[in-house]
Amino acid sequence: xxxxxxxxxxxKALINASRFxxxxxxxxxxxxxxxxxxxxxxxxxxxxxxxxxxxxxxAQVEKEGEIAIPAKVITEIVSNLQPGxxxxxxxxxxxxxxxxxxxxxxSGMNTSDLPLIxxxxxxxxxFTLSKxxxxxxxxxxxxxxxxxxxxxxxxxxxxxxxxxDLTLVGTDGFRLSQRKLSVSGNTKTQNLVLPKGILGExxxxxTEKENILFEYKKEENQVIVLMDDTVFxxxxxxxxxxxxxxIIPKATNIKINVDKEEFLxxxxxxxxxxxxxxxxxxxxxxxxxxxxxxxxxxxxxQKTKIDAKVEGKGIEIAFNYRFxxxxxxxxxxxxxxxxxxxxxxxxxxxxxxxxxxxxxxxxVKIQG
Length: 368
Description:
Number of helices: 6
Strand order of the largest sheet: 6-2-3-4-15-14-13-10
Strand content: over 45%
């Protein structure tokens, strides 16, 4: 393999690909990044078995070939080189990197031990998603997924495809986020649970094109996504996702609207004391106000009252302040709407300006 490439392009690709490597696996090859040339392109790819990426960009290719290089070493070297042209030349399992003022020889590995990493989608079988819309929707769901690996299915996001409708769901058993959006073209009716790691990459990755292509390969139990010149792939999580619709209250008798910034400020003030008492913040709903209370045995207590538009009788209910704060950060509107039925039932939280987004938080039982 022999080629010339711009440092800026290679450094960016290596930094992105290195997030898909792993040093903990029993397979040392998974700590490597694969470099491969095809005609006028360099393809940088990596996998950790659960998910993979393949990034291609223009290069002056003199001789085609491929090699696997330890991710940390090559990423640190290329990232610290000056912008401009870099020469890459591989012989057997060694890669020489050189510029006008720098040269280095790195020990690599044969790529035959690397699992197959997808480099394209089948455009005839794929459907289109708006990058902006899917990124926004995922950001409103992904934070509610579980970090508990003992229930792997809850660490992913449920994607429900029905014709032109896509519903995203995330839950950790204590809260639940549901976001609906439309897709271009009809999709097959199917439910897929994707790891939040790959979905986080979709949110992070910038793209010049408005749309991304999404393909599900049932035989391989794999999803492949194309964004510009970057291909992501991931395995689909196996298992049965809980029947989340059962826990969404069918009816409520209390509705409260508050200013988002005022509510956030009140939650942050309460959190100073709630951190010492299992993160619990108590909410008291009055006729035209909402009071947040928190206390700590070591620090003291606080009470913050804010104006509210209240429909229904008052209620006392307690929540984990962190769940409240994360929900508030996930909405774009200027108000927060809350609906309750009683102090033991899940609270429904929403953005009045976005009827496609619904968030549930389980209350904390108040002693006494």
